[in-house]
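Why should sequence recovery work at all? Because a backbone constrains its sequence more than one might expect. Tight turns favour small or flexible residues, buried strands favour hydrophobic ones, and helices have their own preferences. The token representation captures these environments compactly. In the example below, the structure is given first.
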């Protein structure tokens, strides 16, 4: 029996494509470089030759010359957030339209944050967008040394030479308090998740200051560590004893759990017996009997602003970092009323 020798695969280069197409190597390079100047006639010749030879440009080799990889690192935490899947999809699609690809790094606790950034830096990413996560000063300094810009999204803490794109949570707290007072509510229960998250603290403090200034209303309880439908529903066992007028939650899913607990477990009418406000305007909030009054967050604008900030720093590392605070709106539906 004779053994067949495996043929060595010959690597096709841009030189081979240029020779077959009858153009220069720089014309081949421009053809496969997004937004580069090349005539349609030349581009057609190059594409035909490349397809015939089975040529594909070596992105990594090109990055050694251009110092750009066309890669953006995306660091995401808090995967229990129902918006995160759609957020990842939106980032990926919008970056691809700009000829960038996304490398995703997920984190579960604070110790993972710096490790994730160091991982991304090994891939020579052109920039990093971080959602609800805060890197250490040492890692930020390492990024600055590499001219790798960072944009912090949804975290109001500022780091040296980083852009931030946030939601104005002080304004949300004030607007919620003013709305509740105008509707006639006076007995409040506030619910949020992690008590250490700064955005939740800001909203609570702003809400409290309005009540104190107007001298109207009382916060019966400021509950923390309650996130999601089931925890919201279970929390009603203690909340019902307080007899609040309204329950204001830091999550739509928590609010929907509160509503189910009130209706199913305690036969209460919403909003006649008790009112509920959520946070986020998850699509499910407007479905059927839910019709939840909630805070609508500017998700797409948040994504657009963070990408714009990142590209500005990629194109000019000397530009000063930009800090953006976006406004939200309260969407009134069927879980609140004038009393």
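From this structural description, the recovered sequence reads:
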């Amino acid at each position: 029996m004779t053994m067949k020798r495996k043929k060595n695969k010959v690597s096709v280069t841009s030189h081979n494509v240029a020779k077959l197409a009858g153009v220069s190597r720089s014309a081949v390079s421009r053809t496969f470089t997004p937004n580069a100047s090349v005539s349609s006639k030349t581009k057609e010749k190059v594409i035909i030759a490349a397809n015939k030879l089975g040529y594909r440009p070596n992105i990594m080799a090109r990055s050694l010359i251009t110092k750009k990889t066309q890669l953006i690192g995306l660091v995401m935490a808090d995967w229990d957030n129902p918006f995160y899947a759609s957020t990842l999809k939106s980032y990926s699609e919008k970056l691809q339209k700009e000829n960038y690809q996304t490398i995703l790094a997920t984190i579960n606790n604070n110790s993972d944050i710096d490790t994730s950034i160091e991982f991304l830096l090994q891939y020579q990413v052109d920039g990093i967008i971080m959602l609800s996560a805060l890197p250490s000063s040492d890692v930020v300094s390492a990024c600055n040394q590499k001219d790798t810009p960072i944009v912090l999204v949804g975290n109001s803490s500022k780091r040296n030479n980083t852009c931030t794109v946030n939601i104005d949570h002080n304004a949300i707290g004030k607007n919620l308090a003013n709305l509740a007072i105008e509707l006639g509510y006076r007995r409040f229960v506030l619910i949020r998740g992690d008590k250490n998250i700064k955005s939740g603290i800001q909203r609570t403090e702003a809400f409290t200051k309005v009540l104190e200034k107007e001298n109207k209303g009382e916060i019966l309880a400021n509950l923390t560590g309650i996130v999601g439908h089931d925890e919201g529903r279970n929390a009603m066992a203690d909340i019902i004893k307080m007899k609040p007028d309204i329950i204001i939650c830091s999550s739509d899913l928590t609010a929907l759990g509160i509503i189910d607990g009130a209706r199913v477990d305690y036969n209460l009418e919403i909003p006649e017996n008790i009112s509920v406000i959520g946070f986020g305007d998850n699509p499910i909030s407007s479905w059927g009997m839910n019709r939840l009054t909630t805070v609508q967050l500017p998700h797409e604008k948040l994504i657009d602003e963070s990408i714009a900030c990142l590209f500005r720093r990629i194109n000019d590392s000397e530009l000063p970092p930009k800090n953006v605070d976006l406004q939200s709106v309260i969407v009134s539906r069927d879980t609140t009323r004038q009393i």
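A few observations help interpret the result. The chain is about 45% helix and 15% strand.
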